[in-house]
Every structure is written in structure tokens, then in C-alpha cells.
Design brief:
With about 325 residues, the chain is α+β, with helices and mostly antiparallel strands. The chain has 5 helices and 20 strands. It is globular.
Length: about 325
């Protein structure tokens, strides 16, 4: 039996912006764990906290809960950090047995500030990864001990797919639908997904552009499902603090405090003019979906292309890795 009064961990995300861009990933290169950190961006305001308000009795599908929380953070990271959203429910395509609703407590629309929703999702993610299960809990989010919102997990019998509610934002809610079409559940045990290299295309309807993700699985560096999602949550919570269309030329590293040996790195490719934060969010969401559908948990290198032009590279994995270069079209 879970103790509903066990507090969240005191810090959900530890994330660092690197002083200079990480090097382009070459076969002999090694990505440093820390390279001249200039500012810690991941700390949650200490006035914010939360607790399990209603302890759920039902154990829900773990993968559906993990990827729905990923979708929630992906959507929130594409919102204005200083704005508010109305009650919004998140259900991931292909994993439709669990929904997550975030809502505020005041006003006729029960809006909740986006920053509270992001911080709350981060804390809830760490709580789930600590217990390694998903239940139909209701989490209360507090600011200076006053309840400001709730995050509720539900079992959905006949769910509607995607993002519903006032927070829906076109292409942002569609990434998982596109990925689900490319990786149908029946493919999950096929030889196809056991390959070490894979290319995914994401049409960006709102921009009339196409993102291509080239993956290389590093099979001699395994990680766990918990490590994967802890670091996906960390990078999405980090970049959610910035305007989605703002460009960055910095290298980025995010790590979860409960799995400090695993990291998510992203660096723009030199000469690309930088990468908009929303594209880093898309890459993170897609990477989580790709590895979960593959069902084999290893470190992964991803190269991100926009309309065929490389713009950045990411890596999720443990420790120092000498990742291979991904050739265009591989």
C-alpha cells in the first residue's frame, strides 16, 4: 500500500545549459558529462510542492501512463511558460487506456498556470518512477501550501485520441499519432524494430515542413525504462521554460536527480543557425515513443533534419559515449 503522505522528491529536474555548444558527434568524440556549466535552469521554485490528494486503488497500464505524461510535458513545453491553460486531458495514440487531466481550481474555466503544470508533471513523473507503477491517483499541486491545481490519472474505457480541452494546439498533439502510424502496435515484436538504425519522418502541418529523425541504437550501452523516461521528462521540463519558437545555439544537457548517471544531450549542428526549442521537444517526444515501441532499452543517438538539412543531434544514454556519426539518409 502506498503512503499518500510520502512527499515528492525535493528537486525533480537537474538541468544545465552548457557554456558552449557540444561538439558535432563524430566516431571518436566523447560527450562530456559537464562542460563549464553557466546556470542551473532545472530547479523548481521551492514555494511549489504537491502531494497525493486521493490515493488510487487501480493499477493502470504502466506504458500508457508513462507516454501520456510524456505527451503532457511535450504539449506544455510548446506553450507559453508564463501563460495559463484550461482543463486539458492527455491520451497518447496507441496507448489509450490511460488519460491524464490537469486543471486549476479558481476562476470559471479553472485555468492553471503553465509553469505549475510543468512543475507538477515533473514531480508526478519522479513519483511514478520512484514507485515504478501508475495508479489512478489524484495529485494536488500547491503554491505556498495553497492548492492551485490537480493532476489526475484515469483509466479510459472508450477514450478519444489526442489532446482535448482548451490546451489543444494543432501539430503539437499530433506527434504521437504520426509515430503510432509509423510504428503500429503489431510491429512491436517484429524484426523491423530490432534494427539498430531507423529513420522517422514527421510532417509539421502548421509549418508546411518536414522533420526527419535518424536514430542509431548503441547496443553496448543499455539503460532501463525508468532512466529513459526520467531524462525525457527532464529535457521537456527544462526547455518548457523558453518560448517554443526561440532559437538556441547552445548545447543542452538534462538529467534526473534519481538517475544521475543517465543524461539527455542536445546540440545544434554548427552553421545551422540554431534550433528552435519546439523541435528539441519533438525530438525528445519521438525518441521516447521510438524506444518504447522498440521494446529494447539502449542508449540512442538521433540526428534531426528539417526539410533534409541537419539542424542538431541528440543523445540519451549513460556516462561517456563515443557515438557513431549518422550519415544522411542512413
Amino acid at each position: 500500500m502506498l503512503n499518500p503522505f510520502i512527499p515528492f522528491l525535493t528537486l525533480a529536474v537537474s538541468a544545465i545549459r552548457l557554456a558552449t555548444a557540444l561538439p558535432v558527434l563524430e566516431p571518436a568524440s566523447t560527450i562530456p558529462i559537464i562542460a563549464n556549466p553557466t546556470v542551473n535552469l532545472g530547479a523548481i521554485d521551492p514555494r511549489f510542492n504537491g502531494h497525493v490528494a486521493i490515493q488510487g486503488r487501480q493499477i493502470l497500464d504502466l506504458d500508457a501512463g508513462l507516454i501520456a505524461l510524456t505527451k503532457m510535458l511535450h504539449h506544455l513545453s510548446n506553450s507559453d511558460f508564463h501563460s495559463a491553460i484550461g482543463p486539458t486531458a492527455y491520451i497518447a495514440s496507441g496507448y489509450t487506456s490511460v488519460s491524464i487531466e490537469v486543471r486549476g481550481v479558481t476562476g470559471p474555466r479553472r485555468d492553471i498556470p503553465v509553469r505549475y503544470a510543468i512543475w507538477g508533471a515533473s514531480r508526478v513523473g519522479e513519483y511514478i518512477l520512484h514507485w515504478q507503477e501508475v495508479r489512478n491517483h489524484v495529485f494536488a499541486l500547491t503554491w505556498e501550501r495553497a492548492v492551485v491545481g490537480y493532476i489526475e490519472f484515469k483509466r479510459t474505457a472508450n477514450p478519444l485520441l489526442g489532446v482535448v480541452g482548451s490546451g489543444s494546439k494543432g501539430q503539437i498533439g499530433d506527434v504521437d499519432s504520426i509515430l503510432d502510424a509509423q510504428f503500429p502496435r503489431t510491429d512491436a515484436t517484429s524484426q523491423n524494430l530490432d534494427e539498430d538504425n531507423r529513420t522517422i519522418s514527421l510532417p509539421l502541418a502548421n509549418d508546411n515542413r518536414e522533420m526527419t529523425l535518424q536514430y542509431h541504437v548503441i547496443t553496448d550501452h543499455p539503460m532501463t525504462k525508468w532512466e529513459l523516461f526520467a531524462n525525457i521528462y527532464a529535457i521537456l521540463a527544462l526547455i518548457g521554460q523558453f518560448p517554443p519558437r526561440q532559437r538556441t545555439t547552445d548545447g543542452w544537457m538534462a538529467t534526473s536527480v534519481i538517475f544521475p548517471l543517465t543524461h539527455f544531450f542536445f546540440t545544434p549542428i554548427a552553421g545551422s543557425g540554431g534550433v528552435e526549442f519546439r523541435y528539441i521537444a519533438d525530438a525528445a517526444m519521438s525518441t521516447a515513443f521510438f524506444i518504447l515501441r522498440r521494446g529494447l532499452f539502449f542508449s540512442v543517438l538521433v540526428r534531426v533534419l528539417l526539410d533534409g538539412e541537419p539542424i542538431g543531434q541528440g543523445l540519451i544514454g549513460k556516462g561517456d559515449l563515443p557515438p557513431p556519426t549518422l550519415a544522411a539518409g542512413s
